[in-house]
Design brief:
The protein has helices at residues 2-20, 250-254; strands at 24-26, 30-37, 43-51, 59-64, 69-73, 83-90, 97-107, 113-123, 135-137, 140-142, 146-153, 157-166, 174-177, 183-188, 197-205, 213-223, 234-242, 259-260, 265-271, 276-285, 291-297, 303-307, 311-312, 317-325, 332-342, 349-358. With 359 residues, it is mainly beta.
């Protein structure tokens, strides 16, 4: 009888003790995120609970299943009838597919340990091959910042296609700014959805280009009408306007001009620092038709090269002046080259060398 009374007393004390403990109550212990995009980054859900007990509730800790899930909870005591939260953040980066993660919560409640779960499906971000489009101009991916039109026969139109891709998260409409009269551009499609690929077709009309030989144009990519002329948006279009001698008849070839330059190397000797020297060389036409000097291509800042006549009659000669300015140059041996472009079918491009020594 005594043992029974003692057992009943212990049970009564236990029930009274439990009745005095906090009671944690959740509206939900599991949450479905549904489908989420990997590229959108971290996702968070907040679990709310109420202390339905008779004493303050304390969350001791919340432990996630893995490092990809981070719980944050109310750390201060929650009085009876008051609410608290446990915020759970999941990082989908590099974790495509279905996921289920658990968070174990420890407290001083009557139920000292319980488990929350989150689940969903991560949609992998679209694959962007950065090697295919290594250049990015305001979200527009390009294969290169230089477009080679290559040789363009005078009088003809040449097209080149540059592949592009929208690497941004928004729809964009690209255009090209600062086009010369002989260049036209067409985008297909005109607008690009995120990650959509397209192409831009460049058309070079040599009939509208007054230059012969190498032609370099800087044009600028424009996104959604925003004009930016910085180097980041610069695209270089390189062409080379040449004459198609393959279409000449035998009679035209027989009467064609013949370029004759006695020496292809111009030696200016030894010069003093900060000196100028001017010389010239002769261009002779040994053919029947007029010899036309199409262009002198000189990319040397210390040299100035200029032809006195751009048209040389049969049997005649004309001089080409060369001026050297050594200002800013240090002592040593120098060689520079320039190119003379003509309508001689056999010598349409002739390279000449200028050599000198500076004390």
């Amino acid at each position: 009888m005594k043992k029974y009374s003692l057992l009943m007393a212990c049970l009564l004390i236990s029930l009274v003790s439990m009745a005095q403990k906090p009671v944690i109550s959740f509206d939900e212990k599991s949450y479905d995120f549904g489908k989420v995009n990997e590229e959108d980054g971290k996702i968070t859900h907040v679990f709310e609970f109420v202390n339905k007990g008779n004493s303050p509730l304390v969350i001791n800790r919340a432990q996630a299943q893995c490092g990809c899930t981070t719980p944050v909870w109310t750390t201060s005591p929650i009085e009876p009838g008051k609410k608290g939260t446990i915020s759970v953040t999941y990082n989908p980066q590099g974790r495509p597919g279905n996921f289920t993660k658990s968070i174990t919560v420890y407290s001083n409640a009557a139920e000292e340990q319980f488990v929350l779960t989150i689940h969903g499906e991560v949609i992998p971000k679209p694959t962007v091959d950065n090697n295919a489009y290594p250049v990015n101009m305001g979200g527009l991916g390009l294969k290169s910042k230089v477009l080679q039109m290559n040789n363009v026969d005078k009088g003809k139109i040449q097209e080149r296609v540059l592949n592009i891709q929208n690497q941004s998260k928004a729809t964009i409409k690209p255009t090209i700014e600062s086009l010369p009269p002989y260049l036209t551009v067409t985008f297909s499609p005109e607008t690009l959805a995120p990650n959509q690929e397209g192409k831009v077709t460049f058309s070079f009309d040599s009939k509208k280009c007054n230059q012969w030989g190498p032609v370099s144009d800087d044009v600028f990519v424009q996104i959604n009408g925003v004009k930016k002329l910085s180097d980041e948006y610069r695209l270089m279009v390189v062409s080379n306007v040449i004459e198609d001698f393959g279409k000449l008849t035998l009679d035209q070839k027989r009467k064609a001009p013949i370029l004759d330059i006695a020496e292809r190397t111009i030696n200016l000797g030894t010069l003093a620092a900060n000196a100028k020297k001017t010389t010239s060389f002769k261009v002779k036409n040994n053919g029947q038709n007029n010899l036309e000097i199409r262009r002198i291509i000189n990319n040397n800042k210390e040299l100035t090269v200029k032809a006195r006549n751009i048209s040389v009659q049969s049997g005649r000669s004309s001089e080409v002046g060369v001026t050297l300015d050594t200002k800013g140059l240090v002592s040593g041996d120098y060689k520079r080259t320039f190119t003379v472009q003509t309508n001689d079918p056999e010598n349409s491009f002739v390279i000449l060398v200028v050599a000198w020594k500076l004390k």
